[in-house]
Each structure stands twice: as C-alpha cells, then as structure tokens.
Amino acid sequence: MPDRRYLHLNLVANDINLHQGAHGYEQASGVPERSTFERLLEYGTFGDEGLFTALFVGDIPGMQGSPAFDGGPAEPITALTAISQHTKHVGLIATASTTFYDPYNLARLLASLDQASDGRAGYNAVTSVIDDFALNYSLAKHLDREQRYQRADEFLDVLRALWDNRELRRDPDGRTRFYAEPINHRGKLFQVAGPLNIAPSRQGRPLIAQAGGSGAGIKVAAKHAEMVFTNSSTRESAAVYRETLDKALVDEGRAPGSVPPIPGLIPYLGRTAKEAEEKLRELDGYVDWAPIAPFALGQFGIDIPLDDITAPFPVEALPVPADVEKTIKSTFGNYVGLYNWIQERPGVTVRDVVAQAVGRGGATHRKFVGSYDDIVDDFAAWHSDGNVGGFNLMFSAGAQSIREFIDEVVPRLIDRGIYRSTPADRPLRERF
Ligand SMILES: Cc1cc2nc3c(=O)[nH]c(=O)nc-3n(C[C@H](O)[C@H](O)[C@H](O)COP(=O)(O)O)c2cc1C
C-alpha cells in the first residue's frame, strides 16, 4: 500500500520546543542528563523506532539567551549527517535560512547529506525572523519580509537548477559516471555558473519543504515546496489554509492537493485524559512564569504589558492578524494560531496565554491533552478531512514522552489503519 494513504508523522528534533518545565521534570524523574549531541542522536533512534516519516530539525541561527534553554545543539545539516549513520529509514529534514546562506554552498551541503543518507534528505526553506541574527551575517539589519521572500524565490530557483542539472549515467563500457551541466544563472541577487560537483542520491535531489505562512510565504511554497510546515490549531483553520495553498498551487500551474500541509502538534498524553492533564500540570509546576511572560507577545513585536500573570488576558488590545501581517515580527502563521486560540477561549488568563505561546513548548502550535485513544481519534478525524498530510510532532517532556508515544499510540494508529506498520524504505521524496 502506498505511504500516501497513511498519516505522515515527523519527529521534530529540537529541544527548544520542549515544555519550559521539561528539564526540571526530567531531573525529578531521575532521567540521566545527556549531552546535547547525545540527545540529538536519541531523536534519531526514536525516528526509526517510531516509523516516523522524517526527523524535522528547525534551525535558529543565533543565540537566544544565555544560558541556552536547548543546550546549544549542532547545526542541523551537520547533526543530521551524523544521525544518518545511526539510522536506516527515517527521513532527515534540515532547516536552513535562505536569507543567510549562499545557494551554491547550501546546495553542496544538502546534496552531501542526501548522499550520506542514501536519499533520505530534505530541506526546509525558511527566511528567518529574529532581527539580531542578521548581525551575524555581515548585514546591517534584517531584510524585510518582501525582500526575504524575493531572495528565497531566486535562491530556490538556483538550488533546484544546481540539483537538477546533474546525473549518474551508466556508460556503454559498463561504468557509472557523474555528469553535470552549468546552470549559468544570472539573476537579480545571485550569479551562479554551476555545475554542482556533488553526485545525486537515489532520490535525485533532497525533498523541499517550506515554513512561513504569510501570503508571500505561501506563494514561495506553492512554487517550490513538496511539503509545508504550518500552524493550524483547528480542523477548520486547516481547511482554510488548504484552500489558500491550493489556489496558490493552481496559480503556479501545479495540481491542487499536491503539497501536503503538515501542522505542528504538541501531545500531552496519559492512559486517561485526567492522567494527561495531571502530567501537564506537573510540568507546569517546574516553570517560573513571570520572567517568560513578556516573550508571549514580544516574539511578535506586539507590546501589551502582561505584568499580572493571574489577570484575565486583555483580548480587546490584541491586534487582528490582517492589520499586522505586514509589520509583525516572527512567524505570521504562529501569530494567527495564537490569535485564534485566544478568540476561541473567552475568559483566558494571562498565564493561559503565556503557557500556550511559550511555556508549554512548540511555539504557538496546537497542544493536545488527552488519552492515547483520544489522540488516535483526533488523528483519524484530521486524516479523514484530508486537509493535512500529517503532523510535525514536538514532544513536550522529551525522551519519556516520545517513548510513551511509540509504545502506546503508534500501535493504536496501526490498528486503526492510518499509520504504516513497517519502516519506509523508499527515498524521502517518494514518500510524500
Ligand atoms: C512552522 C514554522 C517553522 C519555522 N521554523 C523556522 C526555523 O526553524 N528557523 C528559522 O529561521 N525560521 C523559521 N520559521 C520562520 C519562517 O521562515 C519565516 O521567516 C517567518 O515565518 C516569517 O514569515 P511568514 O510571516 O511568512 O510566516 C518558521 C516558520 C514557521 C511557520
């Protein structure tokens, strides 16, 4: 049976997405401390074991606070190249910024990951948001969104041309040789002669994913991507996103439905819903809320004082997404996700919003609290709607919660017939 009839579950391998109480929770539960790189390799092992379609590694190209909450993990392509040697099946999707990289260099690095992993590599193209990171790359300031996406579009044109203009060919003498053609790209921003001197893997080139949910981001996704990392907190918003993406795909001459949106999801699970809620409360108990409160809206450049953590959230002060789409800092889709989440919950407190936006991990992505059976029902409902290809899962409490998911939820999903029961052995691109 082809993989596409199954849900795609990717394992997000970034400790930055952990619940803010996860480190305290691990320590209290007697989980031994591991080095940052050991934790990355552990994600790899879980990736194969849980039959995940891919490991999905985000990238933050700069320091976000010292001490670093995530322990300072290796750069994604380097990390995944190492992980490729310890895994057999799981896809390996690395994030890198089109704003800060040079396309020829990135084409080489990703093609190398693709070789090392025998066709399991993917590239998540992002344009990056934190203004100060630009200062690490000889820029006086961050490019605005329009400029970033113009660059992303030309960047991906170059990347694909470099990857496509090469082949391994079996010659009449029986030997396989690597051939590649120049691309002679002369664009507004890039001048690249080519050819790329790295031979293709068995999937030809890495899968291209995209993350960035504004209109300009969706346009770039529609032109270049084969998978999109999104933020949809309800089935209704997933349907709306799908319609928007499908229209953009048609404008690009591509078939509607040909690019699966994959929203982020943070599961909090237990044998019963009550147990899951208790676990979440236990994790919450390790968080110091007041110091992280300013980041809840500050990450979007929205200045609403949130001094009293127990007060009702000032909903009336929150700007409507359409009014701030052009000016918002950080990820527009994440703001829309948070905005909708708040509108759907009249009477939420400041602490609830801080928990949703930053404390409980995974940015503003949907948090699911429920039993093992509940999450299988939830996945089945989203799957049957047909508006998403699956989920990028971010596990709140790290290794323990991934283990629990693999032991308890994966067998239930297989029984339900919506998840593969054997490892995927096809190249990553063919799985989507
Ligand atoms: C789900 C999601 C994940 C993202 N992951 C990253 C990342 O790992 N690194 C990064 O630099 N930017 C990341 N971004 C930021 C986007 O590339 C983009 O710069 C940002 O979302 C602003 O564009 P937008 O308004 O079109 O969303 C992510 C965006 C989304 C929606």
Description:
The chain is an alpha/beta fold. Helix 4 (103-116) links the parallel strand 3 and strand 4. 41% of the residues lie in helices and 15% in strands. The protein has an eight-stranded parallel β-barrel with strand order 1-2-3-4-9-10-11-13, surrounded by eight helices. Strands 5-6 form a two-stranded antiparallel sheet. The mean pLDDT is 93. The chain is built from 15 helices and 13 strands. Bound molecules: flavin mononucleotide. Flavin mononucleotide binds at residues 58-60, 95, 97, 126-129, 145, 211-214, 216-217, 229, 231, 264, 331-334. Flavin mononucleotide (FMN) binds next to strand 3, helix 6 and helix 11.
